[in-house]
Each structure stands twice: as C-alpha cells, then as structure tokens.
Write a structure and sequence with these properties.
alpha+beta; Thiol Ester Dehydrase, Chain A; 7-stranded antiparallel beta sheet; 3 helices
C-alpha cells in the first residue's frame, strides 16, 4: 500500500447538471487531477520534465470504474483521497475516495501505465515497466 494523498476540490456551479448535483464525468476529472497531485506530492517531477529526461509522458488510464454513494452539489468542499493499492510490472491501480466532511460520496479505481511515445509511431504510446525510483517515492 502506498501513501494516501488528499486533493481538495470546491464544487463549482458549472460542475453540476440541471438537477443541481455533480454531473458524473466530473468525478473522473477529479480522479485524474488527484492522480497527478499524488505524484507531485510524492516528489515526482511534472510530466513535461520526465518526458525531457526519461521519455515518460505520463500515466494514462487503461481502465476505470466508479461507485456513486451520495451526491455532491454546488458549493460543497470535497476531498479526493488517493493511493496506489497495487503495483504490477507495467500497470498500477489507484484507489480514490471522494468525501465531504468525512462522509463517502464516491469511490473509484483506475488502472494506469507509465507511457512513452511509441518508437515506431510517435502518435501512439507504449507502456513501460514502472520505474523503481518512482515506485519507491510513492510507497
């Protein structure tokens, strides 16, 4: 199990649907922002820097799921609690729990890879083994 990093979010009016609750894709957007924040807080450089030094362009999602428990609404201050719960050779699983005042609103998991540009076609990406130093920083 890795560290748990908390990413604060304030729900804005534009995050909500006509019913006044958060439109569900925004939870996935917050998972993604919390993922990048997780690596930042663990000391991993920005992806623009890792691309220059190591060719790593980021950690794209290859699978994602979510379970919605309670709605969030405009003005809520919520927290995304993120951790890496599984490390594999080329993939890792992040778990996210979105809470408001300690109450679980939503939980999700995403499977990600560390990616470089494909050597034969730079428009494509290629998963690489997870760098040991980054794994250590995040554990």
């Amino acid at each position: 199990m890795s560290k748990t990093i908390i990413h604060p979010v304030r729900v804005e009016f534009g995050d909500c649907d006509p019913a006044g609750i958060v439109y569900f894709p925004n939870f996935f957007r917050w998972y993604d922002a919390a993922s990048r924040n997780f690596f930042h807080e663990c000391g991993v450089p920005p992806w623009r820097d890792t691309e220059k030094t190591r060719g790593i362009i980021g950690t794209p999602v290859v699978d994602i799921s979510s379970r919605f428990v309670r709605p969030a609404t405009y003005g809520d201050r919520i927290e995304v609690h993120s951790s890496i719960v599984e490390w594999n050779d080329k993939t890792f699983v992040m778990q996210h729990e979105i809470k408001r005042d300690g109450e679980l609103l939503c939980e999700g998991r995403d499977v990600r890879v560390f990616a470089i540009r494909h050597p034969d076609d730079p428009a494509r990406i290629k998963a690489i083994p997870i760098p040991a130093d980054i794994r250590e920083m995040c554990s």
